[in-house]
Amino acid sequence: MTNRNKPVIGITARVEKDQTYTLDPVYGKAILQSGGLPLIVPIVDEEDIPLLCERLDGLIVTGGGDINPLLYGEEPHPSLGAVYPGSDNYEKELIEEFLKLDKPFMGMCRGLQMLNVTLGGTNYQDLEAEYEGKLYQHLQLAMRTHRTHSVELEEDSLLYEIMGEKKFNVNSFHHQGVNKVSDKLKVVARAADGMVEALESKDYQFVIGIQWHPEEFALQNDQASINIFDRFVKECLKDKQQNQ
Fold first, then answer.
1. CA–CA gap between residue 236 and residue 206 (Å, rounded)
2. Which member of 53, 109, 197, 216 is catalytic?
3. Could you say which of 97, 200, 215, 216 is catalytic?
């Protein structure tokens, strides 16, 4: 018999200018593996965003293209890649509404950056051009399940409690990154070169941003990564039951 109590978890997709939605299936598979029901979130009219967010039990904002720097008050750097302003604005509105409702949220890769920008932070438009100090490779050329650099977690963090690991290696597919951190967020993980790798907020029940892609490892039976999705789905189910 179908479990009708599964939490419905919205997952954003990259929206191209012709309204084509593109999403790697690993996000949905990781949610399904942990007992949730994934739903690709389409763009809806602005007045319907509160209703959409009310119906969802959780939200994941995924990876994708570069973030429009006008969102955080900067002009475009020559090394800025392709941006999709409609998608940026929509994700920002979704995040704002989800935080207002205090529902479980996770941002992956670009999703972490969108969380930070939505809450008043800024981005490096291109790490190699703008980051001061020694920089390691963050846009790997190896396969997606390859762990290309190390990350160290703060022990006083929700993510450390969930994963049970302090230092580990991750995959990395970004040329942008968090620059100024929102005062509503706390850095809980950094790479060896100092780049922000995870953010959390204690102002909400469950808000996490992760720069790497744990969904890839969760499908490779990596327990620490599975724990992330298990805990997220659990939090979404708790929210669903509270609002029934």
1. 9
2. 109
3. 215
